[in-house]
Write a structure and sequence with these properties.
Length: 465
């Protein structure tokens, strides 16, 4: 038996912002036919979608800002289900569904399709998916989209990514996209950009005020941008691998992190310790996830092979090898010792860098702006060092702890925060396009620390948790 959950009509009549007329004009008839006749259904006796407690990420940004490109990387690294609102609409048009020609015209003109249509498509995809973590790309594009989602699905996003890209770069990328899309031409792009500015920026502002927005500078290579995205999700650590949610652990995490500056604070929900098993603890403290079954002999060759294999799982394998190869006899083939060493090497380098930056800033003839940026960097490095120290200490006292999973997850969160601090500093330099020699040196040393941190985090992510 099926029951009706809600109707969207009150949403439409009360929430439409004045500026929406410009983008969605001509939709009155179409709008009303959807608003009353498309009920949302849940099957009685089965778990409703909301009860599945999914992890929802909205991905926003102007046309061509790189949303789809980054979503693909997030899927590959963190295993989300990717739902592109534009793609779902294009598929609907291609399948000659009831309103295909209206949808096609809307998209050709750079306007926004009524929320009922888009939310219904997203909802169908989410409900029929086996996944419980979603990247919803290109949605919500308007306040109306946002409210319709909240009302119909009954959920809010856990996090909202916003790819911030200059207009001329977006135009260039869209015109080069070459996917045969009817809307990738200069006239439509101009309209889409206008619609984005008028209708999407208020949504971005809304999530920013609610502390859910993660703004990412979308200029740079695809990989450079992903390095800014990665920490947001790495902070959620292993819990993506398992079921979600334990209220107690959520509270514990919050109190743990109180007063600590964290980019990912509040974003992740920890799952309970119920997945914690004796065999996993044993694995963590003895065996190694990086050792081949064939290389069990305790020789220096075995240790070197182990390190090579482990480093290959990081983003900067060469740097990983260079920074850790003199410690193979200490690390042997022990994953925990490897992580600990990677962390201590990073901490040492960060402390040296912090001193170097302070000295360079004193010696150089920096302008007032440059001095301000350097001071910000020194502060960010101080925060980063605190996070690394805290992580190293926690890693050192894992043995004997009752909450190993919880602690490892905290460590990943702190490490991600350290990485965010480091990239905030280099972003500050990049955004102002400063080419001064001293500033270049400072940037280079901090990028090196960020790479070491990223590697240490990657090694931690490989622990069996
Ligand atoms: N960082 C980048 N630098 C240059 N081109 C990019 C970058 N990211 C994506 N692109 C290209 O720009 C175009 C638009 O990217 P896409 O991910 O489709 O954007 P969106 O989903 O935001 O519309 C694509 O052709 C893509 O290959
Ligand atoms: N929430 C949405 C998302 C997309 N659309 C329509 C209008 C958009 O211009 C097109 C294409 O969106 P898509 O996200 O694929 O592409 P861009 O990010 O604009 O490059 O789809 C919509 O009406 N409502």
């Amino acid at each position: 038996m099926w029951r009706r959950v809600t109707s969207l009509s009150p949403v439409i009549s009360t929430s439409k912002p004045a500026s929406l007329d410009q983008a969605a004009s001509g939709f009155k008839i179409w709008r009303s036919s959807f608003s009353t006749e498309t009920p949302t259904l849940v099957k009685d006796g089965t778990t409703s979608f909301k009860e599945r407690n999914p992890f929802i990420t909205f991905v926003l940004g102007g046309p061509g800002s790189g949303k789809g490109t980054q979503c693909q990387k997030i899927v590959e690294t963190f295993g989300f289900k990717h739902l592109s609102a534009g793609e779902l609409l294009r598929r609907e048009i291609d399948s000659n569904s009831e309103h295909w020609s209206q949808m096609l015209n809307t998209i050709k003109e750079g306007r926004i399709v009524p929320s009922e249509v888009t939310v219904r498509l997203i909802q169908q995809e989410m409900e029929s998916s086996d996944s419980n973590k979603f990247l919803i790309d290109g949605f919500p594009r308007t306040e109306e989209n946002r409210i319709a989602f909240e009302q119909l699905i009954g959920l809010e996003p856990n996090v909202v990514l916003f790819f911030d890209c200059p207009e001329e770069e977006m135009v260039k990328r869209v015109l080069n996209r070459n996917q045969g899309r009817v809307d990738d031409n200069i006239d439509t792009v101009k309209k889409r950009l206008k619609v984005f500015e008028i209708l999407n920026l208020p949504v971005i502002d809304y999530y920013s005020k609610r502390g859910k927005l993660r703004k990412i500078n979308a200029v740079g290579t695809e990989d450079e941008i992903f390095e800014k995205v990665r920490p947001i999700f790495s902070a959620c650590g292993y819990q993506f691998l398992y079921a979600f949610d334990s209220n107690t652990d959520s509270v514990k995490l919050k109190s743990f992190l109180k007063g600590v500056k964290l980019s990912a604070k509040g974003l992740c929900k920890l799952h309970s310790d119920k997945h914690f098993s004796a065999s996993r603890i044993k694995l963590l403290f003895s065996a190694s996830g990086f050792t081949d079954a064939t290389t069990t002999k305790n020789s220096s060759e075995t240790y070197t092979n182990y390190l090579k294999k482990a480093c290959n799982s990081t983003l900067y394998p060469q740097l990983c090898l260079e920074s850790l190869s003199s410690y193979t006899s200490t690390i042997k083939t022990n994953d925990l010792k490897l992580c600990s060493k990677a962390l201590s090497v990073t901490l040492k380098a960060a402390s040296n860098t912090s001193k170097l930056v302070t000295n360079l800033s004193k010696g150089g003839n920096l302008s007032k702006t440059e001095a301000g940026i350097v001071q910000d960097c020194i502060d960010e490095m101080g925060d980063s060092i605190d996070m690394l120290k805290q992580s190293l200490k926690a890693l050192g006292s894992l043995n004997g702890s009752d909450h190993i999973q919880f602690q490892i997850s905290n460590i990943k969160t702190w490490m991600s925060a350290a990485l965010t601090d480091e990239t905030t500093c280099t972003d500050g330099i990049d955004e102002r396009k400063i080419s001064d020699e001293v500033m270049r040196k400072i940037r280079k040393t901090i990028v090196n620390i960020a790479m070491l941190t990223s590697n240490a985090l990657a090694l931690l992510n490989k622990l069996p948790y």
